[in-house]
Structures are given as C-alpha cells and as structure tokens.
Amino acid sequence: MPEDEKRLWHSHHYEVKSGVLVAPGIPDIAEHAYFADLVSTYGKTFHTWQYDRDDFPYGIPQLMMGLADDGQANQALLDDRDRRLRVSTPAKRQNRADIPAPRVLPGANVWESGRTVQTCLEERDFRR
Fold it and tell me: How many CA within 13 A on the CB side of residue 105?
C-alpha cells in the first residue's frame, strides 16, 4: 500500500481483540473464525455526517478513526448496545484472547502519533 494511502486506514486489531466489534446473530464459533481472519485487515471509514450532533447530513464527509485502545468508546453506549443485541463485550474479549494480534503496518493508525489527516472543502476551476 502506498505510504500516502496508509495514513487513511485504521487497523482492526483492537476492535476485534477488545470484543467491541460484534457480529450479532452469528454463533460464537463462526464469529470467532470470522474475526480471526478480520483481525489482520484494515478499514477506511468516512462518515457523511456527525450523527451524534445532527440528524441530517450537514457538512462534508470526514475520515474517522477506528477504536485503538480501552476507554475510547463511551461505556454507557457499549452497555446499551450489549443489552439491545444480547451480547457481552467482556465475554467476546475473553473468547478472542487466543486470536494473535498482528503487527500493525507502519503508517496506519496515524492518529496515534497525535496528528491526522482530514478532508476539506475546496473550490477549484474546472474545464468545460
């Protein structure tokens, strides 16, 4: 992957290993196998609006980071999600403890450095 591209991607290792990422309705054994494969992949996510601020997609899409450490997710929201989906984040974490954590590619998870990239709106001339 080109260096400039890596900074737009986040690893899935924490989301998988922490139990935060779930596949509701999938039997635990199948979910475990799926996440054992997913743990070494990367994602690039753009949100079309800040759903926690507006109920309409105002503004331009923004690059979002993936969760990378404990304490970043709102625990009350996780607890509510677990209750609604009838899952247990701590049980998922324990079930996935045997999944090896991959080495994250240098350049991915760029926000961990304290700086990140973001989209911006810019006017440009175009040819007709």
Answer: 19
Report the alpha-carbon distance of residue 81 to residue 87 in Å, rounded: 8
Owner of token pair 């507006």:
54
pLDDT at position 60: 85
What's the whole-model pTM score?
Answer: 0.81
CB 18 within 8 A of CB 93: yes
- Cα→Cα distances 14→42, 50, 69, 86, 97, Å: 11, 23, 7, 21, 11
Measured from the Cβ of residue 37, the count of other Cβ atoms closer than 10 Å reads 10
Question: Which bin fits 38, alpha (ψ -120 to 50), beta or left (φ > 0)?
Answer: alpha
Residue that has been written with the tokens 């260096």 in this structure? 3
Q: Could you read off the pLDDT of 73-99 as tens digits, one per residue?
A: 999 999 999 999 999 999 999 999 999
* Residue 51, pLDDT above cutoff 80: no
Rounded CA gap, 84 and 77, in Å? 10
Closest CA relative to residue 35, chosen from 51, 54, 12: 12
Q: Given its phi and psi angles, is residue 114 left (phi above 0), alpha (psi -120 to 50 degrees) or beta?
A: left
